[in-house]
Amino acid sequence: MRASLRRIIAIANKEYVHIRRDPRMLFAVLGMPILQLLLFAYAIGFDVDNVPTLLLDGDRTTASREYLAAYEQSTFFDVIGHVDSQAEINDAFDRSNARIAVVVAPGFGRDIARGEEGRVAVQIDGSEPNSAQLGQTYVIALNRQLGREIFVDWGETQAIDAGSFGGIDAQMRMWYNPERRSSDFLIPGLMVVVIMIVTIQQTAVTLVKEKEQGTFEQIIVSPIRRGELMLGKVTPWVVLAFTDMIAITIVALTVFGTPLRGDIFVLAVATFLFVLCSLAIGLMISARAASTEIANLMGLLISFLPGFMLSGFAFPLNSIPPFLQFISYLFPGRYMVTISRSVFLKGGSWDVLWPQVGALAIYAFVSLSLATLMYSRRAD
Q: Do the bridges between strand 100-104 and strand 120-124 make them parallel or antiparallel, or are there none, so unpaired?
């Protein structure tokens, strides 16, 4: 037992020496995750506001001016100007200078005074679906509110009590993210993706480098066992990945104000298992790749694309095709994103997250066993 532990420590020390001697690798492991978090968190966002909007008043009455003033007072619509023709709207859309145009038809004020519906056309640039969908939602909500106010005003002029008519009073409550900040949604998932990319990328080349440097044969003929080699290779990266996770969590809490409401111990255990899963994937790539270039390419493809597309980080998993949902179970990011968001935003603990933590534990055991088996076959 002591001899086995000494061999594992020897391999781990060897990895530490390699990392220490390469400042670029040290920066890539410790600095790049924080830099990527900052870049992605500021660059990726689902918050939409100040949408460039044009207004065309074809009626030019007090009612039309009051109606269009509601758009100018909204924080969602950024009124960049008033135009006089449809051709100007078309030109602004073609040049991407505007995303929404509101056109009040002639006779708007007259129809409102009669208690009829005023005619308004809202044109939305659909080339950006997210902005277009939100713009449509805001326009519908704004017009419903204004329509009710106009109805009440019209009822008063007609000596009708608008309050006597029935209605629906829907009271909404936003859970977990009441401010609807996209950073609170993105950062817990982004932490997982960044750690996954860095750990897989770095460990994907570890065994390939041994072969290129001529030390692979020395390891084969040494008394070290395959499992001991895997543990020795993994140990330094587990420590570095944990350091990354702590640093990223501090940045998320201090710079972005992301709440941390759940059990930190659950997050720590899940992070440890997730790192083992990611490192095992990197070791499997390293055991099969013929060169560092191929290992880097495979590591990027296996970590980046599934991390973004199949983990639930950017898109809900129930909105993707069923066969992709099935494939997502083959990547540990799916489980860790759920754990991270639950701990940060929902106050998740063991009673809720034990299935995901258990899945990561099974994944880590199976993937490390496969990595050891694949290395043994390559050595043979």
A: antiparallel
For the chain, domains (ranges, CATH) are: 2-44+181-379 (no CATH), 51-164 (3.40.1710.10)
Q: Which two tokens stand for residue 23?
A: 């400042």
CB 192 within 8 A of CB 343: no
Beta-carbon count within 10 A of 320 CB: 15
**pTM of the predicted model as reported, rounded to 2 decimal places:** 0.70
One digit per residue, the tens of pLDDT, for the chain of length 380 reads: 566 666 666 666 766 666 666 666 666 666 667 776 776 666 665 555 678 889 998 888 887 888 888 888 877 788 888 998 888 888 888 777 888 888 888 887 787 777 677 788 888 877 665 666 667 777 777 777 766 665 545 444 544 454 444 433 444 455 677 666 777 777 888 888 888 888 887 777 776 666 666 555 555 555 566 666 667 777 777 788 888 888 888 888 888 888 888 888 999 999 989 988 888 888 888 777 777 777 777 877 777 777 777 887 777 777 678 888 888 888 898 899 889 988 998 888 898 899 999 999 999 999 888 887 877 665 55
